[in-house]
Each structure stands twice: as structure tokens, then as C-alpha cells.
Design goal:
Elements: H1 2-10, E1 17-21, H2 34-58, E2 61-67, H3 73-78, H4 81-90, H5 99-110, E3 121-124
Parallel strand pairs: 1-2, 2-3
Length: 131
């Protein structure tokens, strides 16, 4: 619904962009997370469908950013320090994502430097999908 109602405003923009936020679990399943993984995969597919339709009609570029576990206040409340440390050690980068990592990806996709990027899912995860 948000995309639908944003289109009239985006049509007036010189550089219209939509950035959806999903999760790495939209591309890699995890046990006991069927609903979450499915909804994140749906967000990625929504992005791709919008990219096909909205670029042709209105030159609106649509992409997704999919971070892995990020050290937000909620994550810090939901997991113990030991769980956070163990999860970070599994990542090839040796750390968890920071909010700034996701923000920087979004800012890039909003910039002129990303003008030819459309319908993509940018994974921001330090390489965790490799393991």
C-alpha cells in the first residue's frame, strides 16, 4: 500500500527510487522461521515486480536491501552477549552488522551512482551467506 500511494509523489521526482528492506533470510531458509523467511522472500519478489512495472511506466527504480543480524537495540535486548558473540564468530567478517552498514547501502542505492541498478537485492551481511 505504501508503494501504491507513493507513486504519485515519486512520479514528480527527478530521481525516483524505492528501497525495500528485507533480510538475508529471504534468500536462505532457517529452521523454525517459515513465516519470517517467506515474508522476506515476498518482499524481494515485490521489489522485482515493481522494478519491472514501475521503471517502464515512470522510471522509478526499485531495489531491496537485505541485512543479516544487525546490532539494533532490539537485537541487544533479544540476545545475550554470548549469543551475539557466537553469531558474529560465524560470519566471515567476524562481526555483526551495524545500523550504519544498512544505511550506507540504502544511501548508495538512492544515489546517482546506482542509476543502472534496478530490481536487485543487495545483501549486506559481511559474507554470512557464503557459509
Amino acid at each position: 500500500m505504501c508503494i501504491k500511494y507513493a507513486i504519485p509523489l515519486l512520479k514528480k521526482s527527478n530521481m525516483p527510487r524505492i528501497i525495500n528492506i528485507a533480510s538475508r533470510l529471504g534468500t536462505k531458509p532457517m529452521e523454525d522461521s517459515v513465516a519470517y523467511c517467506t515474508s522476506e522472500a515476498a518482499t524481494i519478489m515485490l521489489t522485482q515486480c515493481c522494478a519491472l512495472e514501475l521503471t517502464k511506466k515512470y522510471n522509478i527504480k526499485t531495489n531491496t536491501v537485505s541485512p543479516s543480524m544487525t546490532l539494533t537495540p532490539l537485537a541487544k535486548k533479544s540476545y545475550t552477549e554470548d549469543e551475539i558473540k557466537q553469531t558474529a564468530m560465524k560470519n566471515p567478517s567476524g562481526r555483526l552488522g551495524e545500523v550504519e552498514d544498512t544505511v550506507n547501502a540504502v544511501l548508495f542505492l538512492l544515489s546517482e551512482k546506482a542509476d543502472y541498478i534496478n530490481g536487485e537485492n543487495l545483501n549486506v551481511n559481511g559474507g554470512i551467506l557464503l557459509v
